[in-house]
User: Fold Glyoxylate/hydroxypyruvate reductase B from Pollutimonas thiosulfatoxidans.
Amino acid sequence: MSRKQVLVYRELPPAQLQRIRDEHEVTIANPRVAGQERAFLDALPTAEGLIGSSYAIDDLLLKLAPRLQVISSISVGVDKFDVDALQQRGITLCHTPGVLTETVADLLFALVLGTSRRILELGRYVQQGRWKRSIGEDLYGWDVHGKTLGILGYGRIGQALAQRAALGFRMPVLYHTRTPVGSGLPEGKARSASFDEVLQRSDFVVIVLPLTEQTRGMMGAAEFARMKPGAILINGARGPIVQETALLDALDSGHLRAAGLDVFDIEPLPQDSPLRDHPQILPLPHAGSATHETRAAMAEMATTNLLMALRGETPLAAYRRG
Ligand SMILES: NC(=O)C1=CN([C@@H]2O[C@H](COP(=O)(O)OP(=O)(O)OC[C@H]3O[C@@H](n4cnc5c(N)ncnc54)[C@H](OP(=O)(O)O)[C@@H]3O)[C@@H](O)[C@H]2O)C=CC1
Ligand SMILES: O=CC(=O)O
Assistant:
């Protein structure tokens, strides 16, 4: 089999890089790192395979890469890619579903606990030397067990989150999804509900949807107004699903109690963003899948996808719009 040109546009563990080098010629250039964008653009005209993530690959960029056969994303979400343009050009898009599901669900549940029990605020209180006597009501949190958890998007991660909530914390679960799906839980633990019912009845609304034309901006002022007073919003999906200004208004007015955000409209979050230091926001740096074990598994799966597709084999996970 002939060796092909592979452009690696995000860091890969050495073992995975070596697997690619064993079969192909490799160029490493991360366009998000200062000084590497030129090398990235220069490598596109000859690139036959691309592996990386977190960088928009649109039609304009694809025009610069006429030999491209495969893109392997080190992510499950594929919103950074112009999927229609890829399909028209016959380029295979691979991603990493499944290997990160449980890890992301763990982090989403950490945001549920962290917002309601005010973990960030209480930790800072101790670190700043302000803990001089037993804390009072002004620092109390709110119970999580027994509260209603609403999930927008009931796919792999949504269902893993529901298991934690329903079985571990006795939380009634309401879920909203596009295609009807069973709860996967014992009778009475979770049920499907309309978008409105999830908003109106849930104490926590967790977003685990893909970013698409239908979901972009889906949570705005009208949707926050329909949420229960004192409810908490968790966004573990993609920033642009939430209208950030409307969220700030809903928090500042006191209608929503708190928000746990792993994702933002612009990432990394700009230094002057009002979401960065907001007292009711628990912000994380898009860390859903960021454990040693899971990032290693994602890199391995993405590398396997790339190598299989370049050999003409069916990769472990090729993405096609349904
Ligand atoms: N914070 C982080 O670090 C991470 C974030 N993510 C985000 O989580 C998302 C979900 O991942 P995963 O669970 O593996 O994906 P899945 O494809 O398994 O689940 C997505 C679910 O959303 C549903 N859905 C899609 N569009 C709509 C809509 N318009 N209205 C209602 N439901 C809809 C899907 O239904 P249907 O079957 O009908 O399409 C499906 O049930 C990813 O796309 C990514 O954006 C993922 C990993 C890490
Ligand atoms: O956000 C991460 C992903 O895998 O998608």
